[in-house]
């Protein structure tokens, strides 16, 4: 279980301190799929970096299974906006990274993951030969090989076209149903947030804080065209619109 | 296959275009010297240079001296290049080491061979030591500078990945920094080899009784211009061949790179 309590984060900037996150309080049960949505500058990526342990300059408490997060590690898998693969390694070596493929167990798991992220036949391909969606699936497999307790995804499908994105969402749900990994998924795409999450966390900028958390009580696989989906989508949208209004002022969109 | 055929004819065409200039120069040269329009002692004809070349090969003189020169160049390159690589990595990894070492190394970098050669000869005599050290001094810097730049230009984003994947410090060096800086290191190797040949000529011209540089120097005192030309041609050929070998190795090892081939190749 992930527990965030009284989390505050300020950035020092030349024009004074900027409050990036203000009094964040959130609990995520093990195995839950939570999506975060909000305009630019609402601190959703910062929040994810803090949970990952990549950013340790904050006040408050962030605990994973009762233990304070001390730094980055494999139990908190991170998927960046870009795939960030090692360009000199082929697909299977990228997934293994600092683990040896000569290890039978690692090799077997890598094979299984390649199957899971639907990359069979591309084991020996180099990153430059992959499309954006394929590269991002390699990145996901690389994180999953380490059996993470929680998978943190920072707008992972933002750079993909609409068709690839839909496909990737289905792949991700497959993985989630298979592995029951806790998912924290940051996005700026409303449909994506409602399609994937059991809960949608709506965030508000200046200072970044949680505006509302909406439960999406729909069974998987979800139908985007379904009336209940549309109903929930417009509920989130109306919350989201309340957020957008004050955001439109000078300097918005930083 | 049509495509393969096309590629071969294109390659032949490129070879022909590349050879056009040197071949026409050779033709003009041969014509001018045969017609007696220049002093044959200063500019021997291509024919007599070729004859000299043949004679030096059949006597074994060329192979023996080339072997000695290549050995010196290799020792000097391995010593200087190896140290340059190590220093480049070390200084690249640590800002503190950079502050300590880089200013002094940059100061030494610009010293010309000819300026330090007399000192090396005084210190180490006319033997192999002074030659190898002079070559090493030249080979050190291109590898040092390029390795250093390579290490410093590793994609910052990948360091975050390494942290999340729990790379140890050793793994970060061997599995991230070194492969990422390999393109720069290869550039450094090629430049270092080039400089090694340069240093070799200086070392052998300064005082030596063997090697291609010695042949050139010796031929100068007897005005055997065609021998000098043979020496120069050998240096050019060996330089080009070693560079091609390293390039081949580079292409093998850096297959993952996108931008290996320039546009229009």
How many strand segments of chain B?
0
Question: In CATH, what is the class of the largest domain in chain B?
Answer: Mainly Alpha
CATH architecture title of the largest domain in chain B: Orthogonal Bundle
Please tell me the total number of domains of chain B: 2
Protein name (chain A): Sulfonate transport system ATP-binding protein
Pfam families (chain A): ABC_tran
GO molecular function, one term (chain A): ATP hydrolysis activity
EC number (chain A): 3.6.3.-
Question: Can I get a quick summary?
Answer:
The complex is a heterodimer of chains A (254) and B (265). By secondary structure, chain A is α/β, with parallel strands linked by helices.
What does this structure look like?
- Chain A has seven helices and ten strands.
- By secondary structure, chain A is an alpha/beta fold.
- Chain A has a single domain (2-83, 147-244), classed as Rossmann fold (3-Layer(aba) Sandwich).
- Chain A has a six-stranded mixed beta sheet with strand order 6-7-8-3-9-10, sandwiched between helices. A four-stranded antiparallel beta sheet of chain A has the order 2-1-4-5, with helices on one face.
- In chain A, helix 5 (162-179) links the parallel strand 7 and strand 8.
- In chain A, helix 3 (104-116) packs across helix 4 and helix 6 crosses helix 7 (227-247).
- Chain A is globular.
- The two termini of chain A are 32 Å apart.
- By secondary structure, chain B is an all-alpha fold.
- Chain B has two domains: 1-38; 44-264, Orthogonal Bundle (MetI-like fold).
- Chain B is 82% helix and 0% strand.
- Chain B has ten helices and no strands.
- Chain B has helices at residues 2-34, 46-58, 61-93, 95-109, 113-124, 128-152, 156-164, 169-206, 212-221, 225-253.
- In chain B, helix 3 (61-93) packs antiparallel against helix 8 (169-206).
- Chain B starts with a helix and ends in a 12-residue tail after the last helix.
- In chain B, 28% of the residues are buried.
- The model of chain B is unreliable at 260-265 (pLDDT under 50).
- Classes of the chains: A alpha/beta (254), B mainly alpha (265).
- The A-B interface holds A 52, 54, 71-74, 76-78, 80, 82, 84, 86-89, 97-98, 126-128, 142-143, 146 and B 157-158, 160-161, 163-168, 171, 175-176, 179-180, 182, 254-258.
């Amino acid at each position: 279980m992930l527990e965030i309590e009284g989390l505050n984060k300020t950035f020092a900037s030349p024009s004074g301190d900027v409050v990036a996150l203000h009094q964040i309080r959130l609990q995520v049960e093990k195995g839950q799929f939570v999506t975060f949505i909000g305009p630019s500058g609402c601190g959703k990526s910062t929040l994810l970096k803090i949970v990952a342990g990549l950013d340790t300059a904050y006040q408050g408490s962030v605990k994973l299974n009762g233990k304070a997060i001390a730094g980055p590690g494999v139990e908190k898998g991170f998927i960046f906006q870009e795939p960030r693969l090692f360009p000199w390694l082929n697909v299977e070596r990228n997934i293994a990274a600092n683990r040896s493929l000569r290890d039978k167990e690692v090799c077997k798991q890598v094979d299984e993951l390649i199957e899971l992220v639907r990359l069979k036949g591309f084991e020996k391909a180099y990153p430059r030969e992959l499309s954006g969606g394929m590269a991002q699936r390699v990145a996901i497999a690389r994180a999953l090989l380490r059996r993470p307790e929680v998978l943190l995804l920072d707008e992972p499908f933002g750079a993909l076209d609409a068709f690839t994105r839909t496909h990737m969402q289905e792949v991700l749900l497959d993985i989630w149903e298979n592995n029951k990994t806790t998912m924290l998924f940051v996005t700026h795409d409303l449909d994506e947030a409602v399609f994937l999450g059991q809960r949608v966390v709506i965030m508000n900028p200046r200072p970044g804080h949680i505006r509302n958390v909406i439960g999406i009580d729909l069974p998987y696989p979800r139908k985007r065209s379904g009336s209940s989906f549309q109903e929930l989508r417009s509920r989130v949208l109306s919350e989201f619109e309340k957020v957008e209004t004050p955001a439109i002022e000078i300097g918005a969109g930083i | 296959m049509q495509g393969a055929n096309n590629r071969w004819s294109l390659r032949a065409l490129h070879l022909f275009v590349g050879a056009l200039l040197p071949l026409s120069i050779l033709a003009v040269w041969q014509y001018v010297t045969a017609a007696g329009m220049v002093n044959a002692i200063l500019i021997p004809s291509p024919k007599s240079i070729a004859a000299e070349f043949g004679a030096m090969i059949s006597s074994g003189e060329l192979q023996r001296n080339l072997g000695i020169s290549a050995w010196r160049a290799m020792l000097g390159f391995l010593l200087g290049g190896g140290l340059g690589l190590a220093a480049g990595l070390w200084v690249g990894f640590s800002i503190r080491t950079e502050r300590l070492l880089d200013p002094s190394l940059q100061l030494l970098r610009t010293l010309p061979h000819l300026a330090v050669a007399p000192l090396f000869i005084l210190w180490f005599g006319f033997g192999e030591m002074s030659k190898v050290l002079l070559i090493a001094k030249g080979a050190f810097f291109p590898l040092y500078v390029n390795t250093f730049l390579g290490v410093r230009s590793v994609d910052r984003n990948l360091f975050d990945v390494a942290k999340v994947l729990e790379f140890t410090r050793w793994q970060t060096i061997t599995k991230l920094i070194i492969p990422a800086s390999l393109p720069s290191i290869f550039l450094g190797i090629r430049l270092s080899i080039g400089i090694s040949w340069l240093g070799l000529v200086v070392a052998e011209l300064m005082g030596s009784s063997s090697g291609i540089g010695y042949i050139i120097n010796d031929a100068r005192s007897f005005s055997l211009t065609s021998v000098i030309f043979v020496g120069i041609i050998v240096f050019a050929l060996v330089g080009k061949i070693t560079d091609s070998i390293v390039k081949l190795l580079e292409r093998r090892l850096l297959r993952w790179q996108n931008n290996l081939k320039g546009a229009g190749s």
